[in-house]
Amino acid sequence: MDDFIATPSDLRGARHVDKMAPVSPDSEGAGDSQTEPTQPGDLAQIRAELTQLSRRMLTREDTGSIVQELRAALREQLAGLRTDLTNLEQRVDEIETVVQDCDDQHRATEVVVTRQGNMLITLRRQV
């Protein structure tokens, strides 16, 4: 097992190996946004990169077509929502009608039951 697990004494003798690339004199100021390129090749490369970036940027026509597509999709979604809302309104109206009919029937039944109760009381008195 000791062959597979390194002990602290084994690690003391090991040298630390740096895996980073050595720093070149050209790259020392590369991260600075204040420095300007001094070689014409650098300017040409920057121009080429800017040209590529400008080609990838959205134009008014691109954004216009995207906006039109979004509007069309929203209209379609709204039309679906309106249809769903109309269907729900119809169902609620039907349910309200059924509930009203049940309520009317319940009240009528209460009146009949009350009358029958009064009639039973009267019959008991007579008996």
Automatic annotation (TrEMBL):
Domain of life where this protein originates: Eukaryota
Region of interest: Disordered: 1-43
Name residues in a coiled coil. 71-105
The alphabetical list of record keywords is: Coiled coil
Name of the protein described by the UniProt record: Uncharacterized protein
